[in-house]
Specification:
This protein is an alpha+beta fold. The protein folds into 2 domains: 136 residues, FAD/NAD(P)-binding domain (3-Layer(bba) Sandwich); 87 residues. It contains 7 helices and 7 strands; from the N terminus they run αβααββββααβαβα. Strands 3-4-5-2-6 form a 5-stranded antiparallel sheet. Strands 1-7 form a two-stranded parallel ribbon. Strand 4 and strand 5 form a beta hairpin. Helix 4 crosses helix 5. The radius of gyration is 27 Å and the shape is elongated. It starts with 17 loop residues before the first helix and ends in an 18-residue tail after the last helix. The chain binds flavin-adenine dinucleotide. Flavin-adenine dinucleotide binds next to strand 2 and helix 7.
Length: 263
Amino acid sequence: MEIGTLDDLDLPTSRRGDSLRHFWSLIAAIGENPLGTVRAKAAIVTVSTSVLAGASIQMPAAPAWRHAAALLPPGKNEKMFLEVTGDSPFDPETQVLGNPRDVRTGAYYIRPFGWPVIECFVGRECARVMVQDSPEAGFVHALEELAALFGSDVRRVLGPLIASGWSRNPNVGGAYSCALPRNGIAREVLARPFENRLFFAGEATHGFDFSTAHGAHDSGVRAAEEAIGSIAAARLRHARAFICLVPAARICKIEDIPTDHEE
Ligand SMILES: Cc1cc2nc3c(=O)[nH]c(=O)nc-3n(C[C@H](O)[C@H](O)[C@H](O)COP(=O)(O)OP(=O)(O)OC[C@H]3O[C@@H](n4cnc5c(N)ncnc54)[C@H](O)[C@@H]3O)c2cc1C
């Protein structure tokens, strides 16, 4: 899909240097797909801060954005689901905390909507164990906590179903951004556009609804509006440049143009 070409870009010659080449490499990298290479006048980058701070994307000369992303690293949270089979002591729509005195504790949402599952939300140490050791280690820990709360018989009715691995996934690298102390301002830096062609979205760029799904959504709307505005402004500049090239003798006022009736 060919949306535009390098020559369409309204950039001063001095800016057509390395940064622009890298910019186009980025677009090409994002756009490589079975349909070919996508080229665009603007792009929105919305990968996690872990990916942005890493080396997997070739970024333009934009160290400020990489640095900002590094100051907003994703924390560790994971989820796992246990299946409940047969008779069990689990009442639907119940929430319990495994052990408030244990940093590895999970928060358990029991039989959401009456479904035969338990959703376990874990952070910090337990998430680290699931990532560094194995998802099975997480299931074992969850079973221990639930057996301690509901009796060891629950082991017979609970089985591992599925577990997330956000921190292990190289395209995500964690749960959601957590600013390092005194570095919340980095969100503002991360949200700035690069050369009005590369725009940044994602929960980490939101000033106050960071770390949430709706913050991610709203940041995408903001970045899309910025990109559209930038393209519209570039078109206007092109149009103005064209008008300046029209010889003065050919310029007439709108009311001087004959209407259909007068012809
Ligand atoms: C366990 C857990 C529970 C949560 N609970 C809640 C909750 O209850 N309420 C709430 O509001 N929020 C919750 N969140 C947070 C919410 O899920 C995130 O804030 C939100 O998903 C972030 O969206 P995002 O688009 O910024 O980033 P992401 O969802 O990380 O999206 C980034 C995307 O970029 C893709 N990508 C990476 N590299 C490339 C590349 N090179 N090319 C193309 N694509 C690439 C990734 O695959 C990914 O799909 C939770 C998160 C976790 C992990």
